[in-house]
Design a protein that fits this description.
Shape of chain B: globular
Helix content of chain B: under 10%
Distance between the termini of chain A: 37 Å
Radius of gyration of chain A: 13 Å
Shape of chain A: globular
Number of helices of chain A: 0
Number of strands of chain B: 12
Helix content of chain A: under 10%
Structural class of chain B: mainly beta
Number of helices of chain B: 0
Structural class of chain A: mainly beta
Oligomer: heterodimer
Chain lengths: 115, 114
């Protein structure tokens, strides 16, 4: 079965640079979620989109922005990168009606290292 | 705010034995879902099992089963016939029926020994 695809898998950036992470949800899934997992920590919810509209927002820094496109893929844009942004970034997708009742399936993650 | 607590940072089990991982949660919601995710060394987040709060019957998936005690707000995971491939970090997670986000516990690292 097709899974969530994330690219790139690994990314190395310098401080103050920008980064763009991409997520391709499972076919027919209409909702995507972004999570950040720091070293030794549990994943923290950043933001989600349902049918190309932002549906929920968590602890996402103002330096980050995201959107979902007409083909349902999503991009997380990160600017003015800081050392503390080094983490594993997960995208997850689900098929759900308004109300968020279905299960989230995670991609393999993008490991971002900021030097 | 909803919280998820996993009080066992590490657990160890011998191959073929049974182990139970604990999880408690705090919520005032009546409509919610509970999950166990497995994160092996590859760091992939893999869904193990899910439970709807309105269902009284405990969910099972092959060797994995849960003990859902709604009044006690407890959601433990039992792994039977443990295998070496079960070694991983296990996260308990909670989601309301209306919100998008998953709230995770801090995880339990499971070691499987020969």
């Amino acid at each position: 079965a097709a899974g969530v695809i994330q690219s790139p898998r690994h990314l190395i950036k310098e401080k103050r640079e920008t980064a763009t992470l991409k997520c391709y949800p499972i076919p027919r899934h209409d909702t995507v979620y972004w999570y950040q997992q720091g070293p030794g920590q549990d994943p923290q919810f950043l933001i989600s989109f349902y049918e190309k509209m932002q549906s929920d927002k968590g602890s996402i820094p103002d330096r980050f922005s995201a959107q979902q496109f007409s083909d349902y893929h999503s991009e997380l844009n990160m600017s003015s990168l800081e050392l503390g942004d080094s983490a594993l970034y997960f995208c997850a997708s689900s098929l759900e009606f308004p109300g968020g009742r279905d299960t989230q399936y995670f991609g393999p993650g993008t490991r971002l290292t900021v030097l | 705010a909803q919280t998820v607590t996993q009080s066992q940072p590490e657990m160890s089990v011998q191959e073929a034995e049974t182990v139970t991982l604990s999880c408690t949660y705090d919520t005032s919601e009546s409509d919610y879902y509970l999950f166990w995710y497995k994160q092996p060394p590859s760091r992939q987040m893999i869904l193990v099992i899910r439970q709807e709060a309105y269902k009284q019957q405990n969910a099972t998936e092959n060797r994995f089963s849960v003990n859902f005690q709604k009044a006690a707000k407890s959601f433990s995971l039992k792994i039977s016939d443990s295998q070496l491939g079960d070694a991983a970090m296990y996260f308990c997670a909670y989601k309301t029926g209306t919100a998008s986000k998953l709230t995770f516990g801090t995880g339990t690292r499971l070691q499987v020994t020969l």
